[in-house]
Amino acid sequence: MLLLLTLAMAVLHSSLVLTVHLLEHDQDTSVPRGWVHTGRVAPSDRVQLTFALKQQNVDRLRELLGLVSNPDSPQYGKFLTLEEVTSLVHPSDLTHKVVWGWLQSHGVAACHTVLTQDFLQCDTTAQVAETLLPGSEFHRYRKGRRSVVRSPARYSVHADLAQHLDFVGGVHRFPTEMQTVSRAWTNGARHEAKFHLGVTPVVLRSRYNLTAADVGSAENNSQAVAQFLEQFYHPADLAEFMAIFGSGFKHMSQVARVVGTQGGGKAGLEASLDVEYIMSTGANISTWVFTNPGRHESQEPFLQWMLLLSNMSSVPWVHTVSYGDDEDSLAAAYMMRINNEFMKAGIRGISILFASGDSGAGCRHLTKGTNAFRPSFPASSPYVTTVGGTSFKNPFQVTYEVTDYISGGGFSNIFPMPDYQLAAVSAYLKGTTLPPKTYFNTSGRAYPDIAALSDNYWVVSNRVPIPWVSGTSASTPVVGGMLSLINDQRFLKGLPSLGFLNPRLYQLKGQALFDVTEGCHLSCLDDQVEGKGFCAAPSWDPVTGWGTPNYPSLLATLLDK
Ligand SMILES: *[C@@H]1O[C@H](CO)[C@@H](O)[C@H](O)[C@H]1NC(C)=O
Ligand SMILES: *[C@@H]1O[C@H](CO)[C@@H](O)[C@H](O)[C@H]1NC(C)=O
Ligand SMILES: *[C@@H]1O[C@H](CO)[C@@H](O)[C@H](O)[C@H]1NC(C)=O
Ligand SMILES: *[C@@H]1O[C@H](CO)[C@@H](O)[C@H](O)[C@H]1NC(C)=O
Ligand SMILES: *[C@@H]1O[C@H](CO)[C@@H](O)[C@H](O)[C@H]1NC(C)=O
């Protein structure tokens, strides 16, 4: 409504009007809490814009990804190289001509492309950016030590460019990340359970049946964590973590490669957690860290990481990411395009895992007294494997697992349900008591796909072992490490990597996984649902997916082709 009004006003005030087009009309441009406005930037200040050029053959890409990821297809595992991906999706000559011509006519020359040719990243001044993107107005915002330049007003492009661009990055979205906290800091009561079992590599390896022999040994196997925070993992923390918790299995104590710039500053819990747990689960496997990539004030670190994947012909086989945003805060065009990027990774045999989030089903306030659950993206993308969280049933022992009430899960309002999960999800929807229908969208992609323990981890950060660290940011690298170990055994047998796992995972129908059937996750604190979201149930559920890996069984089932 508001949008139409704004456009109508623009019509009255300008003669160009009908020639402009909003690429991201539904992008939330409000300033997230915690960011302080510090004024409009000077016309000569530099800004960095990322143009997502319209790709070709996206339908073919989707179809091919389905084939290479489906174990019943003769094409299974026949992945493409980045060069082959480029031949498939690169933008048309016309698109290049129109976009370059437009940029050059405004004097923008400092642009970098990626190997797949479908992104252009350009440095320019705020003044030129505002001319290129009518409506935009660049301001500076600060949060702690971070500073970003954003436009609180919507941008448009001239209509003749609209068919050549998916979106422009570096204008609206603020950096977000999942907040990993130690429950020792937030929840005083939990302090009392002094003899509570903390999760360590040994506990994980015991629960998931990993033996000392289950470590990597294949050459050129590798895994990665991607982090988008102004906080860093410290090599000394990793070394100390391995010294304290790494006995009994062969492991590496150093990251093989850091892509991007590690700042100074303090180590972050999140950063320490990811690295320490992917390297103790996917033990003895070469590990990369992607961190705050980008040349200067990184405009959209997550987008920057996506660009890197399209600009490096050799990247690790498994990537775990603890990052997410509310679906309703993002433009559909942006999410669709990022989804294409996940397809481009999957078709290369790369597995991308996202944490499902730490707010259960989430809650979105619609109108007075009306709420709905709030799915999160990229967790809701049909082309990533989304990881939920569990706790031990008996917190004092290695027992079976139940729902961790924070485990993110639900149904997308953007992406329709993919075929691979139709049967599993419809069985769940028929078989159990559900929250009121108005809270969620049964036609959407349902997540998570799989889970692991997410409660009470020990993490070494700033040289200090910290207990009670919880969240799906913990379960995601654990599942990632196990997939890397499976890749390792596959490589030793001459098989290709697992790639995009979901079609195969859903075909297993829970075989080789510990089904989680107890507990519900949290949601809206209102009279209708009283804080309760979905509940775990036998087989797949939108709280813990298919459950948690029984490593030796999963390895055996994923090693036959
Ligand atoms: C992609 O990689 C090339 C070669 O390393 C580099 O010159 C270019 O700047 C990169 N593109 C982006 C967008 O960073
Ligand atoms: C794996 O772990 C479960 C539970 O901890 C146990 O019941 C099972 O026997 C173990 N071994 C295998 C090979 O599944
Ligand atoms: C650890 O990995 C290396 C290759 O990176 C391999 O040569 C070695 O055998 C592995 N160690 C074990 C115990 O498997
Ligand atoms: C694989 O090995 C090649 C050659 O040694 C190396 O250049 C490349 O970086 C490795 N790739 C990964 C992802 O480790
Ligand atoms: C429900 O999800 C579908 C995608 O599966 C979407 O097209 C539709 O708009 C969604 N409905 C609502 C009310 O968000």
Topology:
Elements: H1 2-13, E1 20-21, E2 36-40, E3 46-53, H2 58-69, H3 82-89, H4 93-105, E4 111-113, E5 119-125, H5 126-132, E6 139-143, E7 146-150, E8 157-158, H6 159-162, E9 165-169, E10 181-182, H7 183-186, H8 201-207, E11 222-227, H9 235-245, E12 257-260, H10 269-281, E13 286-291, H11 301-309, E14 318-321, E15 325-326, H12 332-346, E16 351-355, E17 364-367, E18 370-372, E19 376-377, E20 385-392, E21 401-403, E22 410-416, H13 422-431, E23 444-447, E24 450-453, E25 457-461, E26 464-470, H14 472-492, H15 502-507, E27 513-514, E28 520-522, E29 532-535, E30 548-549, H16 551-557
Parallel strand pairs: 11-13, 11-14, 12-13, 14-16, 16-20, 20-24
Antiparallel strand pairs: 1-8, 2-6, 3-5, 3-9, 4-5, 6-7, 10-26, 15-19, 17-18, 20-21, 22-23, 25-26, 27-30, 28-29
Helix pairs in contact: 2-12, 9-10, 10-14
The protein binds 2-acetamido-2-deoxy-beta-D-glucopyranose (5 copies).
One 2-acetamido-2-deoxy-beta-D-glucopyranose binds at residues 220, 222, 286, 314-316.
Q: What report would you give on this structure?
A:
With 561 residues, the chain is an alpha+beta fold. It folds into two domains: 20-55 and 90-174, no CATH class; 221-410 and 449-557, Peptidase S8/S53 domain (Rossmann fold). Helices cover 28% and strands 23% of the residues. The protein contains 16 helices and 30 strands. Strands 11, 12, 13, 14, 16, 20, 21 and 24 form an eight-stranded mixed sheet that branches. The longest helix is centred in the C-terminal third of the chain and has 21 residues, at 472-492. The radius of gyration is 23 Å and the shape is globular. It starts with a helix and ends with a helix. The model is unreliable at 1-17 and 187-193 (pLDDT under 50). One 2-acetamido-2-deoxy-beta-D-glucopyranose binds next to loops. The active site is at 270 (charge relay system), 274 (charge relay system), 473 (charge relay system). It comes from Scleropages formosus. It is found in: Lysosome.
